[in-house]
């Protein structure tokens, strides 16, 4: 399996290198769909220039990346292209290994369940075969590396690629069961963009499951484990925050990075839901709706964790999707990360209901973004409503996609415990309805 | 959501849509065409009205008195033009300075990719002369432009004369709050392009021009004047700009309002408006007017010198004086008053024109159809593609009858499919790239080997590549994956149909007319093509409905609409020149129609060609 992966990596790097050399790179780096005020490379360069001049990079209102990123590029600015390509490669390889390991576990679990004859007899066609699962890790890597969204994001040198790499490493270490590294990478991801905080829940569920600790609030062992994990997580977060303070010698970066993410002062259009809403709103409602919008992202964690407590990896996928839809400055790079997981759930395809509609809408919207942007900004004939309509549609399609996968996953689990051909009480064929 | 989540109702809906797919498609197509034709029917359209407050409620008085002097200046200009044998730059500079303007010149040069036979030019060198009247009443942050092209021969002398007359008159008024720039551009659009690029410090087309020495504020609106006789019978308004962009409708309203006020006959597309909308001839008259606008907009080329302003977010229109055999004549004084009134109203603007519509069609000067009314016509055509795609999806999703297979078999079927879909996609796009690049790059080689002129070489190469594309792609998938499967062509058709839907949707948003005309011809092709229809007649229909033939029919149709029908021979010559103009427009002004057709629409059409010959 190593050979196809290597080929894939070479192909992906070639495409990116070719695009870096073409005239398209500048064009892509300007697109609002690809870079946000947080992740734009132009702003990183500005921050670096300020740093070199001995001014705090957060002076003014241009640079909003974390201090670690700016010190990373302080050394690597001449190798920026290689860094971003490497970040994509790391993400892909990490996802590849993670999914490979996860599939092994899924298969083992399925084998035990089969031996214990826990599945109803008519569910045999739902059982996954090793042959079908063999190519899934490769497909995941391919979905990430060859996804046009990832390529655009990488060519634009959006720092989103680095965040994705950190999250992918977090997923890998969690699935491998390494508690310490998982906590460190999670805190690094949180340090980068706050929202990955919600990934705490799936990580805890997964690690407890792996160490055979029952999720029971009355048991000491569970709380002890949670405390351990929280200690490692908060400890490394503390170290990073202090490190940033010592690097810059000031706390400037806290309002400039986290305040910027949470209070959404920059209303540059993007593919998210925030900008139009807050641009249109009266000032005195702003704080209230800001809280509503931000809580929205964290809100789904608890119900999803309760519903999916047996399936933490699917929960990670759901959380990533929720974050990339509802975060304050989303870019296509965020979407690419959760789209990479779709091959893992390829066995759910028979239960998906709206996949055709949703993929048509996603495709059409992706094509319409630049068109409507052109009409609004350059031709001046359309206005922001046109662009926002497409943004809204794009996000509705994403939500439908995710909820469709959620429904399909639950339905498969239901069938695995109650049989594929459900009967009503009177013996006629029953159908499952989501209400 | 009930519809999306309840499996029984979904199944019922989908089975209804697949069972009645063909009739629904036919009905949609008919409905789309009928809707579009209905747009020209007066009761279905809206009357134009002035939306901009700053221009609506204020009164202005027009007093321009010196029409005769303007004509004399025009004659003087004509004499100097004849003497110099081109643009009399020195005389213009002197005359403008005498009228108290700040005068500047800009030189430019441009070598066309191949000689333009219509306008007989290849290496173009010229000078723009412009004078700025500084605003006495406000900081000079905004400007208006009045331009007149200096053309060869006897044309447009009166326009330049009137422009200079207006400059002198405007100079003596004190109410100007915006700079007014009087521009005389040489070599029509090329000069305009140079001037606009110089004004905005951009260089999008790689032209050589000297930087501008003087500037006004940001330009709010511009009018281009074309006038070739001392008296006129009517004024014609031209709106269509580059890539089918239109100025804000308020500019047209302003023109119409002043023509009504001053009592000048006004036309659009050279057509007067009529009051007998309920008669057949009245309806066909407005259909004709609207179709002319649709054809002009679809061509994507600027139909007057104003066309390039629109790209810079400047509302602009061309006003043409027309002298026909009517009894009632209007003198230059009146035209001067008309322009004075329009400029005074534009001078009152507090912000850019943005209140009224940007997307509209005009069946007459007093009526318009807005985007909300005309988009359903396109939507009805586009929905056919979606219905076909849904049908194909359902066919693909349900396992083929006879084999009761599970997951394993579909897995095997999918992998060669990717290749057999990817190959035609790649090959047809490569053909498209060849169509885009070869005509200009192989010009020299074609000239050496064939006895043709430069322009012919380019156009004939384009046609040759286009025709060669028909022979090239089909059957390629057989070398890659052996026999083409039933499954294979369905996947390819699904991809092609969705591709066409997205492509047409995007085109219709930027340029509705182009999108609609392409949809009108390509949607039936996309809907009916399968490998199982009779080959020869279908191939014939497919070729007839291909983009190149659509263009050929459009040429004849356009001539018919303009009431100058031509023979097939002349039509063919015109067709060749239209193609060369399209390529020239792309390389000179950045018009998007040629690359759109060559790089996207043509490859998409080739996919359907490919499906027909799927074996």
UniProtKB/TrEMBL annotation, chain A:
Pathway: Glycolipid biosynthesis; glycosylphosphatidylinositol-anchor biosynthesis. It is a multi-pass membrane protein. Residues 1-17 form the signal peptide. The keyword Endoplasmic reticulum applies. Its main location: endoplasmic reticulum. It is found in: Endoplasmic reticulum membrane. Pfam families: PIG-U. GO terms for biological process: attachment of GPI anchor to protein; GPI anchor biosynthetic process. The chain crosses the membrane at residues 82-99, 143-172, 229-251, 257-278, 285-302, 314-342, 354-379, 385-407. One of its GO terms (cellular component) is GPI-anchor transamidase complex. InterPro entries: PIG-U. Belongs to the PIGU family. This is Phosphatidylinositol glycan anchor biosynthesis, class U. The gene is PIGU.
TrEMBL record, chain B:
Pfam families: Gaa1. One of its GO terms (biological process) is attachment of GPI anchor to protein. It is a multi-pass membrane protein. The keyword Aminoacyl-tRNA synthetase does not apply. Pathway: Glycolipid biosynthesis; glycosylphosphatidylinositol-anchor biosynthesis. GO terms for cellular component: GPI-anchor transamidase complex. It comes from the Eukaryota. Keywords: Disulfide bond, Endoplasmic reticulum, Glycoprotein, GPI-anchor biosynthesis, Membrane, Transmembrane, Transmembrane helix. It is found in: Endoplasmic reticulum membrane. The chain crosses the membrane at residues 20-41, 371-390, 418-437, 457-474, 494-527, 539-558, 592-614. InterPro entries: Gaa1 (IPR007246). Heteropentamer. Part of the GPI-anchor transamidase complex, consisting of PIGK, PIGT, PIGS, PIGU and GAA1. Interacts with PIGK. Component of the glycosylphosphatidylinositol-anchor (GPI-anchor) transamidase (GPI-T) complex that catalyzes the formation of the linkage between a proprotein and a GPI-anchor and participates in GPI anchored protein biosynthesis. Binds GPI-anchor. This is GPI-anchor transamidase component GPAA1.
């Amino acid at each position: 399996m190593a050979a196809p992966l290597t080929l894939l990596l070479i192909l992906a790097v070639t495409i990116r290198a070719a695009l870096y050399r073409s005239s398209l790179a500048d064009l892509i780096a300007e697109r609002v769909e690809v870079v946000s005020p947080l992740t734009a490379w132009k702003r990183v360069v500005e921050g670096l220039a300020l740093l070199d001049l001995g001014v705090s990079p957060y002076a003014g209102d241009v640079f909003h990346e974390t201090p670690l990123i700016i010190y990373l590029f302080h050394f690597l600015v001449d190798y920026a292209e290689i860094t971003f390509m490497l970040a994509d490669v790391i993400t892909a390889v990490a996802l590849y290994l993670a999914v490979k390991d996860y599939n092994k576990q899924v298969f083992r679990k399925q084998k035990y369940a089969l031996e214990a004859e826990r599945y109803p007899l008519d569910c045999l066609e739902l059982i996954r075969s090793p042959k079908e699962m063999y190519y899934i890790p490769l497909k995941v890597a391919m979905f990430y590396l060859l996804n046009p969204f990832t390529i655009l994001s990488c060519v634009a040198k959006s720092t989103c690629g680095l965040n994705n790499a950190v999250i992918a490493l977090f997923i890998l270490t969690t699935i491998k069961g390494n508690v310490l590294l998982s906590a460190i990478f999670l805190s690094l991801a949180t340090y980068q963009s706050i929202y990955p905080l919600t990934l705490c829940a799936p990580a805890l569920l997964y690690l407890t499951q792996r160490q055979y600790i029952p999720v029971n609030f009355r048991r000491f062992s569970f709380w002890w484990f949670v405390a351990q994990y929280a200690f490692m997580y908060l400890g490394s977060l503390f170290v990073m925050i202090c490190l940033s303070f010592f690097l810059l010698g000031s706390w400037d970066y806290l309002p400039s990075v986290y305040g910027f993410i949470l209070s959404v002062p920059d209303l540059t259009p993007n593919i998210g839901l925030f900008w139009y809403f807050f641009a249109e709103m009266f000032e005195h409602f702003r704080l209230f709706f800001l809280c509503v919008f931000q809580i929205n992202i964290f809100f789904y964690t608890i119900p999803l964790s309760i519903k999916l407590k047996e399936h933490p990896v699917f929960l990670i996928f759901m959380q990533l999707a929720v974050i990339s839809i509802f975060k304050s400055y989303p870019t296509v790079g965020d979407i690419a990360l959760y789209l990479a997981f779709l091959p893992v759930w390829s066995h759910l395809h028979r239960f998906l209901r709206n996949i055709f509609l949703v993929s048509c809408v996603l495709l059409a919207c992706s094509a319409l973004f630049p068109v409507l942007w052109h009409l609004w900004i350059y031709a001046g004939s359309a206005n922001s409503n046109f662009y926002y309509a497409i943004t809204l549609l794009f996000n509705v399609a994403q939500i439908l996609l995710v909820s469709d996968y959620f429904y399909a996953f639950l339905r498969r689990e239901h069938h695995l415990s109650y049989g594929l051909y459900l009967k009503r009480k009177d013996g006629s064929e029953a159908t499952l309805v989501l209400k | 959501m009930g519809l999306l989540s309840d499996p029984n109702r979904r199944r019922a809906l989908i089975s209804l849509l697949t069972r009645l797919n063909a009739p629904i498609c036919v009905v949609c197509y008919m409905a789309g065409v009928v809707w579009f034709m209905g747009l020209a029917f007066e009761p279905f359209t809206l009357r134009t009205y002035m939306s901009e407050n700053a221009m609506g409620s204020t009164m202005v008085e027009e007093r321009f008195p010196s029409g005769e002097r303007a004509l004399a200046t025009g004659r003087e200009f004509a004499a100097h033009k004849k003497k110099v044998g081109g643009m009399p730059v020195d005389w213009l500079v002197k005359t403008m300075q005498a009228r108290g303007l700040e005068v500047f010149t800009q030189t430019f040069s441009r070598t066309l990719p191949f000689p333009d036979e219509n306008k007989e030019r290849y290496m173009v060198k010229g000078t723009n002369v412009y004078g700025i009247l500084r605003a006495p009443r406000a900081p000079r942050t905004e400007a208006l432009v009045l331009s007149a092209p200096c053309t060869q021969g006897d044309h447009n002398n009166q326009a330049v004369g009137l422009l200079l007359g207006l400059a002198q008159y405007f100079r003596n008024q004190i109410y100007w709050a915006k700079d007014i720039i009087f521009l005389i551009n040489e070599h029509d659009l090329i000069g305009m392009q140079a001037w606009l690029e110089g004004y905005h410090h951009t260089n999008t087309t790689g032209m050589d021009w000297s930087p501008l020495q003087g500037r006004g504020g940001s330009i709010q609106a511009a009018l281009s004047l074309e006038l070739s006789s001392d008296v006129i019978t009517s004024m014609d308004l031209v709106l269509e700009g580059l890539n089918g962009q239109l100025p804000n409708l308020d500019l047209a309203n302003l023109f119409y309002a002043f023509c009504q006020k001053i009592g000048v006959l006004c036309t659009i597309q050279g057509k007067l408006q009529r009051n007998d909308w309920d008669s057949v001839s009245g309806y066909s008259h407005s259909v004709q007017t609207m179709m002319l606008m649709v054809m002009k907009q679809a061509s994507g080329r600027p139909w007057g010198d104003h066309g390039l302003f629109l790209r810079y977010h400047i509302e602009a229109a061309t006003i043409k004086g027309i002298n026909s055999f009517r009894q009632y004549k209007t003198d230059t004084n009146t035209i001067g008053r008309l322009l004075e009134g329009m400029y005074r109203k534009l001078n009152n603007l507090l912000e850019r024109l943005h209140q009224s519509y940007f997307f509209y069609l005009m069946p007459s000067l007093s009526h318009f159809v807005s985007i909300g009314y005309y988009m359903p016509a396109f939507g009805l055509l586009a929905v056919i593609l979606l219905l076909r795609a849904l049908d194909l999806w359902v066919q693909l999703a349900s396992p083929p009858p006879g084999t009761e297979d599970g997951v394993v078999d579909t897995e095997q079927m999918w992998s060669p499919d990717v290749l057999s879909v990817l190959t035609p996609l790649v090959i047809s796009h490569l053909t498209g790239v060849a169509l885009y690049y070869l005509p200009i790059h192989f010009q020299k080689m074609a000239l050496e080997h064939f006895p043709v002129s430069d322009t012919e070489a380019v156009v004939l190469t384009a046609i040759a590549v286009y025709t060669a594309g028909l022979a090239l792609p089909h059957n390629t998938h057989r070398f890659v994956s052996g026999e083409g499967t039933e499954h294979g062509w369905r996947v390819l058709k699904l991809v092609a149909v969705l591709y066409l839907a997205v492509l047409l949707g995007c085109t219709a948003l930027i340029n509705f007319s182009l999108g609609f005309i392409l949809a009108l011809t390509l949607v039936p092709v996309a809907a009916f093509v399968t490998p199982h229809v009779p080959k020869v007649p279908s191939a014939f229909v497919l070729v007839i409905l291909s983009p190149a033939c659509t263009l050929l029919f459009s040429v004849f149709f356009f001539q018919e609409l303009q009431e100058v029908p031509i023979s097939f021979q002349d039509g063919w010559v015109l067709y060749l020149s239209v193609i060369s103009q399209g390529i020239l427009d792309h390389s000179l002004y950045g018009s998007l129609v040629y690359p759109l057709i060559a790089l996207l629409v043509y490859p998409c059409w080739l996919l359907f060609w490919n499906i027909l010959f799927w074996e």
